[in-house]
Specification:
Shape: rod-shaped
Radius of gyration: 24 Å
Structural class: mainly alpha
Order of helices and strands: HHH
Largest sheet: none
Number of domains: 2
Amino acid sequence: MIRQLREGYYRVVSYFQKIKSLVRRGRESRGSQKLMMNIASDQQLEGGVIEENVEAKEVKRKGAKKARKSTVKKAVKKRRARSTRKRAKKRRAKKSRR
């Protein structure tokens, strides 16, 4: 029992450290807040022993990360397209001046 409690405690500490690092990097995202709240509620339920559902939450956050990545990719694509259009416009303008 004591070993189980100790394991739970160390796991909690490691998650809080993870959150701390997120905050330090200025990523106080909803994900980390949610994780913090989940940990707090788990602690109350289990008396310091966290069940494996925390791992499931981590996976969910990974999905959010992927979504963010794809959004960024799209933005970059659009930006490139814009600059290409701009270049074409300039080229046409030059031709008409000649």
